């Protein structure tokens, strides 16, 4: 079956079955095989609308960013939770009881959503009897005032193609996770982000929060001279001289900058 993983094509006439991600994160792929590349990841609490299954794999579409593909069914469950909170730190642990000295039983990254049913001391208890440090969670309605501050929390996280967690992420994954934390809808891939986000500004007028695009890459301006980005040259999220990054990328990888988009200014949405 040939399709664009970013958009549903020839959508089946049947009604999908709603599944939720139960694992901390799962990989979405173009084809239902373990040894093929990852297109993106879905985080705990995300909804995946399933249209068919094959050999333990489920084919469907993510509700959050509309990505289409195959997810191994063992990381999903038919939707039965009603998330109330999300993780608002880069990473937090899951414990079997309200005791930080116990061995953890899992890890959740920023943006993972859970249903909290009660508070026990410093811990929030999920509907699955998991214990999470309560101060690492916030309500689903909470938005961060500055997405650049969010992005900076991922400094030195390893580069991972298709990744969008604190264990590894790619350039557009960093942008998506950070913007979503600030309450801004964001497509998954850099070309879609370039087409759909913000308003165009000139490269000689960049400022904090601007997104700089190459054909196949995106970075975030920390200020007028510093770029933050997940990249395969350093194999991690780094901040570096914008001028130096532009020169290196032009020579060794993605060529010239194709545009700059201004998405946030003082925490206010622009042209969304």
Explained architecture:
This protein is mainly β and 272 residues long. The chain is built from four helices and 25 strands. The strands form six sheets. Strands 3-2-6-5-4-1-7 form a seven-stranded antiparallel sheet, with no helix packed on it. The protein has a six-stranded antiparallel sheet with strand order 18-23-19-20-21-22, sandwiched between helices. Strands 10-9-14-13-12 form a five-stranded antiparallel sheet, with no helix packed on it. The protein is globular and about 50 Å long. The model is unreliable at 265-272 (pLDDT under 50).
Mean pLDDT: 93
**What is the β-strand count?**
25
Main sheet characteristics: 7 strands, antiparallel
Question: Helical stretch count?
Answer: 4
Query: By helix and strand content, what is the structural category?
Result: mainly beta
Radius of gyration: 19 Å
For this structure, the quaternary state is single chain
């Amino acid at each position: 079956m040939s399709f664009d993983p970013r958009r549903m094509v020839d959508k089946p006439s049947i009604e999908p079955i709603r599944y939720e991600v139960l694992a901390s994160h799962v990989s979405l792929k173009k084809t239902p095989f373990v040894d093929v590349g990852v297109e993106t990841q879905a985080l705990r609490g995300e909804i995946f609308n399933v249209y068919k299954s094959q050999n333990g794999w489920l084919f469907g579409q993510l509700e959050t960013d509309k990505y289409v593909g195959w997810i191994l069914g063992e990381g999903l469950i038919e939707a039965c939770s009603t998330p109330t909170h999300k993780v608002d730190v880069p990473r937090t642990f899951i414990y079997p009881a309200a005791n930080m000295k116990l061995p953890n039983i899992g890890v959740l990254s920023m943006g993972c959503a859970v249903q909290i049913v009660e508070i026990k001391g410093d811990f929030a208890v999920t509907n699955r009897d998991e214990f999470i440090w309560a101060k690492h969670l916030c309500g689903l309605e909470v938005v961060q005032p500055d997405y650049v501050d969010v992005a900076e929390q991922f400094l030195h996280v390893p580069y991972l193609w298709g990744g969008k967690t604190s264990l590894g992420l790619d350039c557009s994954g960093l942008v998506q996770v950070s913007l979503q934390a600030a309450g801004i809808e964001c497509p998954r891939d850099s070309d879609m982000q370039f087409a759909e986000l913000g308003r165009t500004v000139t490269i000689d007028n960049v400022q904090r929060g601007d997104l700089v695009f190459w054909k196949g890459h995106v970075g975030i301006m920390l200020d007028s001279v510093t770029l933050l980005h997940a990249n395969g040259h350093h194999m991690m999220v780094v901040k570096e001289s914008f001028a130096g990054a532009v020169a290196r990328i032009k020579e060794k990888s993605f060529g010239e900058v194709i545009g700059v988009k201004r998405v946030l200014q003082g925490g206010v949405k622009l042209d969304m």
